[in-house]
Amino acid sequence: MRSASLSSPTALAPIKLLLGIAVLLILPHIGTLNPIFIGISLFFLAWRLIALFKPRLLPNNWLLLPLSFGMGFLVLKLHGMSLGREASSCFLLMLLGLKLLECKQNRDVLAAVFVSFFVLITPFLFEQTIPLAFYNLFIFLLLFSVLIINNAGSQSLSRVYFYRFAANITLLAIPLMLISFLLFPRVIGPLWALPSDANKGVSGISDTVNPGQFSNLALSNETAFRVRFADKAPAHQDLYWRGPVYWNTDGQKWARAAANPSLKVSQAAPSENKFSHSITMEPHERTWLFALDTPTTASESVRITNDYQLLMTNKLDRARSFDFTSSPRLAKTSLSEHERKRGLALPNSTDSRIYQLTMQWQQESNSPFEVVRKALGHFNKKFFYYTLSPPTLGKDPVAEFLFTTKRGFCGHYATSFAVLMRAAGIPARLVGGYQGGVYNAVGDFWEVRQADAHIWVEVWLEGRGWIRVDPTAAIAPSRIERSIDPNQLISGNEVSFLVLPTNTWRKFALQAESVLNAIDYYWQSGVLAYGPETQDDFLAHVGIDGWEDMILWLAVLSAITLAALTAYFHLSHYTQLDSAQRVYLAFCKKLAKKTGPRLSSESASDYFKRATKHYPTQASVLNTIKRLYLKTRYAEIEGGALLKAIKRFNFVRG
Amino acid sequence: MSTTTSNKFSYKRFIQGELHQQNTLTLNHRRVFILPNKAGFAMLALIALMLVASINYNNSMGFVFTFLLASAAQVSTFYSFKNLSALEIKAVRATPFHLGEEGAYSLLIKELEGRERWNIAVSIGGTSHTIQHITGLESLTVQIPIKPSKRGWFDAETITLSSTFPLGIFRAWAPLKFEQKVLVYPQPLSFEKKIPHGNRQAHDGGSTSLTAGVDEFAGLRNYQQGEHYRHINWKAWAAEKGLYVNQFSAQQTPETWLDWSHCPIEQTEDKLSQLCQWIIDAEKLGLSYGLRIPGHELLPSRGAQHQHTCLKLLALYDA
Predict the structure, then answer these.
(1) Mean pLDDT of all residues in chain B?
(2) I need a labelling partner for A316 at 20 to 30 A (CA). Which of A7, A359, A542, B260 fits?
(3) A562/B119 CB distance under 8 A
(4) CB A525 within 8 Å of CB A226
């Protein structure tokens, strides 16, 4: 028996742990947030760390208050007086640092931990990768440990007990979390207008095309989107992912037409040529989507225009999945006068050599189709090179490329081909998108990367409609100057890791990569893309319609989970006895045969005193057992010594 | 123990605890209640904020961690309950003390399930005491400081065991009622400096010898088993006053009567305080003192037991 002791109000141990956690919270923000604020928050932490040893260096409220206002103002000032995701993250980091500086007692720790929980989700506003999720889960556990250690008033951080405690709570919380995640009714769109920085730094195809623009993308290994075909997939060379269509040119760059009317009738294609597929798009902050050329039907929220662009009302600001059906286009019989005009428009500044060249082709051929072939042949025979590092072009890029440099990539070829076509009187337009992709055998999907970005031309041929022409493919293969990394080369190859097993290690690495990609695909399409629309679709499958149903099921399933937890807690009594205690209790049970059971009023010491009367010759052994037991329980030495001492005891001898 | 439905949800049960005639109680699901505390509501606000941020940015991982936090907070209530359940609480007889002093109500707390318990506050009225840690199967006594406002039996009414373990956002509490009471003596106050001389029977003067002798009759004291029959005061026996023993000392011990009617103070409580002070003084001086208050008379004697009897009489005096 002992007397209870009073608690001390200072909370050094939890503050120490919290300082470590704060560093971990700042780390993912390095590189995304303004370095000034990373620096200031680290400075605050260092200050608090020094104050651990010299408490008089802690700032008082007269310093903290102006400091808080000053920091708040600085954050707003450096972020254009708006509270976007970067500003809010900086704001929370400042708050965390200041809160820690204010932290002296147990209840201050609580407030600091609350701020930390909020800071914890801020890196997800910038990226939501699997490693980051696990990293944050680790921090989450640590924060829970801080709460527990703080509440228990422990001065030691080394007891595993508290961390296991936190892990237990979190583990048992996972079913409830999953239920909430699946069933909590999601609201479409932001609750208020997001500041412009909501999703910055997304690469991809933009709404204007400059000849030299695509080289930035060619080296980017980032995923653009992932595709899963319902049954069959087309051949690799037919994987043209159609995106925005560019009609207007000023001689230098191409731009999308302002508004396009919707497609009137979706043309029915023979069913064997239909490709149903779903695409999980990475957020790219554009209103257009990509689908296999040519899309005929799309998800509800997507509009198909009459030039086969896929448009949404709002920008895509988060990962989402869409369903499409595509089939080879059927002949379109007529071209409106307006479209013909647009398809032939060229700026007045167009170089005369271009007209001379096309004039020559026109004279030599008797149909537009032959002109197209002649133009492709021109690229093939006149020493054009494919390179990702072309010479820079000046004011008239098309003429310079065609007649001087002759070096470039898809952007150069497509733009100049389209200009040639228009000069020859053939309506032409540019289509931006992606070509190819890597098949992932593990996850059964196609991954399309930014490096697969491509641009091609569509020309109008009377009686045949718009025909896809890819001038880049016309270059003689021997003249492709590829200085791209091997990864990029492989990405053009469907099942490269199966075809190139020259090196076992390499094969293994590639397979591991495809497994990781598969995991990432499920992460993207299953977890991250789980938004309002996906939720509706998914829950409709199991018969849950509308938010009333969701709330009902959320309540029912939560109640069941809580009931199960209640049962678990009622049944799991003696589970937390540690090994030393188990051994000790077993020993007491054996001892009780002679001494009688331990009285409820007896403590360990009292009981051993009584037992010594029954075993007078083994008094010292009993004493050792008692001492070791108390030591094992309270001072936390290893239980081995106790076990040995108990084994030495002879129950028969008096 | 049966509880009717109307009782089950009565406000009293949550705050004051069930009436109980025992002095040993074991905490279980009937006695432990849980509600969020101030920090809990702050946590709720935090979760709401995180939820708004997640909705605004349609951020799946934001949702995951917001829901994980909320769920873990919910799950922690089970641990809050476990921190208090299966504790056996026993009200122990406590030492009486004087009004105005700080006394203690004693509880013996025993852990029954071999689990560690943390940060449990035991409170009576406004005062409380915190037990930082109880190890598995441990027993410990807790002295909760009390400062009663009147003499007599102190009834703790409701003793509340509460804990915010593990997270500090939920408060689990168990209101308990025990039969055990603590005796509170009157507050000793000195209005008259001296013990009244006029009340002394027999001779004045001389120092008092504490050693019992055989020379002179010194007074009576309670008969104790085994004493010689010749010392018994047969007059008292004949008067049906009980068995008393004649006391002798080498020099006669003055016998002091502390008499209600001779105490020159008007107010009852002050009178009791004065008598209380005299009893303490007399005991200190080693006098043999008797106590007379309306309706009661204690024959002169001395010793801790006698002092307690006298003080108890005063403590429980009811005009």
Answers:
(1) 81
(2) A542
(3) no
(4) yes
Residue A138 or residue A160, greater confidence: A138
DSSP A458-525: EEEETTTEEEEE-GGGGS-GGGEE----HHHHHHTSTTHHHH-TTSHHHHHHHHHHHHHHHHHHHIII
- Cross-chain residue pair B110–A528, CB shorter than 8 Å: no
Min CA distance, A228 vs chain B (Å)?
A: 22
The answer to whether the beta carbons of residues B38 and B181 sit under 8 Å apart is: no
Dihedral angle computed from the Cα positions of residues B262, B268, B272 and B277, in that order, rounded to the nearest 10 degrees: -70
Residue A4: closest C-alpha in chain B: B131
CA distance B315 to chain A (A): 29
Which among B59, B74, B140 has the least Cβ separation from residue A125?
B59
Nearest residue to B196 via CA among B254, B252, B251: B254
In this structure, how many other beta carbons lie within 10 angstroms of the beta carbon of residue A105?
13
The tokens describing A51, both together, are 């104050």
The nearest CA of chain B is from the CA of A140 a distance in Å of 9
Nearest by CB: B46 against A117, A147, A532: A117
Neighbouring residues of B239: CB distance < 8 A, sequence distance ≥ 6: none
**Integer CA distances (angstroms), A91 to A49, A83, A376, B4, in order:** 21, 9, 57, 54
Using CA atoms, how far apart are residues B46 and A230, in angstroms rounded to an integer? 43
Note the residue count of chain B: 319
- DSSP result, A532-558: HHHHHHHHHHTT--HHHHHHHHHHHHH
Enter the tokens of residue A433.
Answer: 């998108």
DSSP lists the bridge partners of residue A104 as none
Identify which of B172, B170, B175 has the alpha carbon closest to the alpha carbon of residue B160. Answer: B175
Q: Tell me, what amino acid is at A282? A: E
Asked if residues A423 and A262 have their Cβ atoms less than 8 Å apart, the reply is no
Query: Which one of A25, A151, A533 would you mutate to disrupt binding with B, by most B Cβ within 10 Å of its Cβ?
Result: A151
Using CB atoms, which residue from B39, B53, B79 is nearest to A169?
A: B79
Q: What is the pLDDT of residues A578-599, one digit of tens each?
A: 667 777 777 877 777 777 666 5
- Structure tokens belonging to residue A153: 């008033």
Chain A residue with Cα closest to B129: A6
User: Does the predicted model carry a pTM greater than 0.90?
Assistant: no
Q: What is the pLDDT of residues A100-121, one digit of tens each?
A: 998 888 888 999 999 999 999 9
Whether pLDDT at A178 is above 90: yes
CA separation for the pair A283, A285 (Å, rounded): 6
Question: Which secondary structure element, helix H or strand E, spans residue B109, and what is its range?
Answer: strand B103-111
Domain boundaries, chain A: 12-158, 208-498, 577-648
Taking contacts as CB-CB distances below 8 angstroms, the residues of chain B near A170 are 68, 72
* CB atoms A147 and B167 under 8 Å: yes
Cβ pair B173, B14 in contact under 8 A: no
| Alpha-carbon distance B313 to nearest alpha carbon in chain A (angstroms) | 32
**B87 beta partners:** B111
Q: Which residues of A touch B115 (CB under 8 A)?
A: 576-577
Please indicate whether, in this complex, the C-beta atoms of B68 and A170 are within 8 angstroms of each other. Answer: yes
> How many other C-beta atoms can be found within 10 angstroms of the C-beta atom of residue B27?
21
Write the CA distances from B178 to B17, B105, B154, integer angstroms: 10, 11, 12
B132 to A121: CB separation less than 8 angstroms, yes or no: no
Sheet of A275-281, strand order: A295-298, A320-326, A275-281, A223-229, A445-449, A438-440
Sheet with A407-408, side-by-side order of all strands: A407-408, A385-387, A480-481
Q: CB of B87 within 8 A of CB of B136?
A: no
Cα–Cα distance between A258 and A244 in angstroms, integer? 12
Interface test with B, best of A6, A95, A107, A110 (most B CBs within 10 A): A110
